[in-house]
Design goal:
With 199 residues, this protein is an alpha+beta fold. The protein is 33% helix and 19% strand. The strands form 2 sheets. A 4-stranded antiparallel β-sheet has the order 1-5-7-6. Helix 2 (23-34) crosses helix 5 (116-133).
């Protein structure tokens, strides 16, 4: 499949079927992450694969927040008004909790910034695109209680969470959110040849 076709077919899924993701597909997704580029090939990514009922219940616990209508407007799957909460979970049968090991990153020699967040982001993106290429839906999640996640998942001190990727087959009645849609700005608004635009 052409790369642009994969990029265009990938949509954010916010309602998942409960069909488990097959082990061979999980392995393909993880392999895509393994072959992602990282600074000086340090490979500091650490991906925690969560697909048991016990661990998915933990995800639901650290993705619950005080009730906020804007998230319900984004997806009714978040609505837990009865408990005064919203829950950013969507019923995914597989969660990839992406971190980087702070002791394994390249550090920029001038500004001393770690490559870890960038490396983890690249790995997560490659895994999302591989998932799309094999018929799975994904959603990138960065809104979660990081400290609670570390505690519930027993994350090592040297691991810094970057994001989570929810993965699974879209639910039969899933409809992409048309408020966000697939609109992309024209290239001339985001890309500039040889010099930045004048202010």
């Amino acid at each position: 499949m052409d790369f642009m076709d994969i990029s265009k077919m990938r949509v954010t899924v916010r309602k998942f079927s409960q069909k488990p993701v097959e082990e061979e597909k999980i392995e393909k997704i993880l392999e895509a992450g393994r072959w992602s580029p990282t600074a000086v090939n340090a490979q500091p990514q650490r991906v925690l694969v969560l697909n048991t009922p016990e661990n998915l219940a933990k995800v639901k616990e650290f993705c619950s927040f005080g009730y906020d209508q804007k998230y319900v407007d984004l997806s009714k799957e978040c609505d837990d008004k009865a408990n005064g909460k919203i829950n950013i979970y969507y019923g995914a049968p597989l969660v990839l909790f992406v971190c980087y090991d702070k002791t394994a990153c390249w550090t920029h020699p001038q500004n001393r910034k770690s490559s870890g967040a960038t490396d983890g982001t690249i790995v997560a993106t490659h895994m999302m695109l591989e998932a799309a290429s094999i018929g799975l839906g994904t959603v990138w999640i960065s809104y979660f209680d990081e400290e609670k996640a570390k505690e519930l998942l027993n994350i090592p001190e040297t691991w810094q969470p970057v994001c989570m990727i929810y993965v699974g087959y879209p639910a039969d009645d899933f409809v992409p959110n048309t408020k966000l849609g697939c609109h992309r700005k024209p290239l001339n608004e985001t890309c500039f040849y040889n010099q930045a635009p004048s202010k």
